[in-house]
Here is the input.
Amino acid sequence: MWEENQLQDFERQVVPFLPAAYNLARWLMKDERDAQDAVQESYLRAFRFFGGFHGETPRGWLLKIVRNTCYTWLRQSRSQQLTEEFDEEFFGADPRVLNPEENLLQNETGRVVRRALETVPSTLRETLVLRELEGMSYREISEVTGSPIGTVMSRLSRGRDSLRDSLNRLSNRAALRHKSKTAA
Here is the structure.
């Protein structure tokens, strides 16, 4: 049975990383409900094995559990490919109040970036999410993914290149659509 101080340690060390856990799960699972289920399962696993947690950073330890839970879930529960498109309604724009022009630009930019990131292969995308969205160090990403630091660095470089290429393709398509609408 858990002692009160173990529960408090878990709440203090692991629970604050719930947003990061959900963010990673959302990008890996590409489905809001599945991401929520995977995070819930991850936290149950983390809670169960918290007594054996030693020496690692809590965020890295938790995100490793989330990553493994997501990949296990995808292998066992779904036959869908990892490159399936996101639900655009779920990944809506920032709800800040902006003037209509700023709001239009922000919404479109966010959609384009999300679409571009969706096209990045999953191993590169997870590295980008952990580095750019979660601000993790190469060492932390290495611990989460179980990859050598050199692999993390090359995945990050290739992921950035892939994202840049995808953004260019999407931007060129948008420019062609705009040009054809104005010419008509």
